[in-house]
Amino acid sequence: MYHPEALEPIVAFLRGIGMQVEYGEGGRDGFLPGVNIHAGALHVDPETLKGPGDLLHEAGHIMVMPRRYWPLLNRDVQTDIDAILADQTARDGTPDPILTRAARQGEFMSQAWSYAVVQYLGLPQECLFFPGSYQYHDYQGTHPMHAWIEQGTHFGLINLAQAGFTGYAGMFACMGDNGLAPFPQMAKWTLD
Fold this sequence. Notes:
By secondary structure, this protein is mainly α. Helix content is 41%, strand content 6%.
């Protein structure tokens, strides 16, 4: 596992913001090796986890959803979010903008959210951005996703700002002012 020393601080952080995290074989067979989601709870298998940042990434998908929907999220979070959005939209014909953002921009939001957590905890970004993470295996120097966020051109920044997690930053700073400190500082970690 890349940066195993980051696992315990990450688990403690996630539990501290209300996320249920369980250790054991339930973490196998997830979307990412070593981490799985069952009814909104994260299950982690340290033996097969590639890096503790993967745990954060999966948590980020959950965090961009209102807490009342967490129990409906399982292994394939995107499919579950799409189903929740379709069900909610079918009831009154109007798609919920929060659910729509989570369905359409959740991947970007999760990436930026994870980056902000690692910064907040003072951990090395390499626990999130390691060889093979985010489909990048061969690169020189800084992981491409890490560079994209650092350059302020990553779409997660604007989506987190629009959702009220953080202030506008990077190339998106001119697109609004929600009164919050700019990314990567976070005003909140979850949607309630």
